[in-house]
Amino acid sequence: MSRYDNVMKFFLEQKEENEKRTKENIEKYRKGTCEIKVVSKDIIDKDATVNIKQKGHEFKFGANLFMLDEFETEEKNRIYREKFPELFNLATLPFYWNTVEPEEGKFRFDKNCPRIYRRPSIDLCMEYCKEKNIEPKCHCLNYDSLIPDWTKSLSLDEYKKKLENRFKLISERYSKVIPSFEVTNETLQSNHNAEFFMEDDFLEWSYLKADEYFPNNKLIINDYNIWDPTDNNRNYYYMQIERLLRNGIKHLDTIGLQFHCFFPEDKEEMYAKQRFNPARLYKLFDLFSKFGIEEQITEMTIPARGNSEENERVQADLTESLYRLLFSHPAMNAIIYWNLVDGYGYKAEPGDMTAGENIYYGGFLRFDMTEKPVYKQLNHLINEEWNTSETLKVKDKLNFKGFYGDYEAELHYDNKAIKKEFSISKGKENSIEL
Fold this sequence. Notes:
Blueprint: H1 3-13, H2 15-29, E1 31-37, H3 41-44, E2 49-57, E3 60-64, H4 74-87, E4 90-94, H5 97-100, H6 122-132, E5 135-139, H7 156-174, E6 180-185, H8 202-213, E7 218-223, H9 236-246, E8 254-260, H10 268-275, H11 278-289, E9 294-301, H12 309-328, E10 332-337, H13 373-385, E11 389-393, E12 397-403, E13 405-413, E14 416-424, E15 430-433
Parallel strand pairs: 1-15, 3-4, 3-10, 4-5, 5-6, 6-7, 7-8, 8-9, 9-10
Antiparallel strand pairs: 1-12, 2-11, 2-13, 13-14
């Protein structure tokens, strides 16, 4: 079989059932009805119309913002700044301890701080997010793998004091302007750099301290190891979350699920049964939804494995199929892709496609910043197919159904136009007056 057939096998076999489910669920869980009331009888009698145009999504489509102003040319920096908000309304910001505080007491928050590749300063990212109306997200507060060298000689008590001080400083600076914070990341992995990681209270301490310093923010747990063979309550990650809740952790708002496909091409047929299988994916997400906590795909990489036409088609069709499925699941609130551009991944020199994350060709833009088919297909999904725009003839009351998000209504009558912004939100009674 071709690579396409191997990767898409289960989507093709389950095509009818999966398409029916995703279509019905998107209509049921991603759209709501809004009532429009026109209060002037004079306008109603003048054959008026209302143009409805969606301006943004309530559901979050995101990516990491690690290459903001990090490219080797200003032209590439400009294209990145323009392309990012065309698809994304959320950005993951690099709060890694080793690059936020590489020297004890010397923080890289300010936009003019010394540069570190793929780690733009937090304030620079915040400035860009505000300019483009993108929601920033912290990644993350306590990630043992990327800690400063200066912490490695600290005693356990000293380390915890420094870590708590990090929570405190981040809270003071960003808790009012960043809605959500990943608290822990990849704690089911075997690698660790600090003695604290091996302590029994690593998780509980982290969430209790996060609740103390971020009481009004959304707190997220994040892990890659969601893919163990079981999709029942003996799943490793499920049991970890279950233990946290049983041990009294009440402030946990979001279950983060990583979806990196970092495995070799000759293993794709085997992994397809697990990761590219609609029935299995729905069962897995249904499992975590038993907690009654929202879910999000926090980090996603779908490989093209090269820039041939066939490879880029595999990436585009698989990514679109996965986005449709993920968008349709009622527990999901965000899909956050990882690297937007090929050739600038972790553990590789820029343009070296033989090392690190670069080997997967997982971006939506090529190294020269041109759009890949996956970019075009997702742009169509997010900004066209999953976007509501229509014109309605005015009467005293009228309803329309649209995707949850921000809208603009423009009332036309007697060669006049009146505009009003409004939102359709999940779980609310939505209505506006014109």
